[in-house]
Amino acid sequence: MTEHTPIRDEIVLEARGLTKRYGEREAVRGVDRPPCTATPRTRLGPPGPVGHHRVHGSKL
Q: Looking at residue 46, what DSSP letter applies?
């Protein structure tokens, strides 16, 4: 059980760091810029029959 605690702490620290970084970025950006989920839609228009999640990957 002792092996799980350090790994968990590392994950928590990483998650906190990421959240803090994102929080700072969001604070600097403000509400003017939408999240990355909305940017591809506005750029490439509405999702086609393949799906908007495929746009990030290969076009098959």
A: S
Q: What is the DSSP letter of 35?
A: P
CA 60 to the chain's CA centroid: 23
Alpha-carbon distances of 32 from 14, 29, 49, rounded to whole Å: 27, 7, 30
Residue labelled with tokens 């590392």: 10
Q: From first to last of its 60 residues, what are the pLDDT tens digits of the chain?
A: 555 555 666 666 565 655 555 555 555 555 555 555 555 555 555 555 555 555 555 555
At 54, give phi and psi (nearest 5°): -80, -20
Residues recorded for the chain: 60
Q: What torsion do the CA atoms of 7, 12, 18, 23 make, to the nearest 10 degrees? A: 180
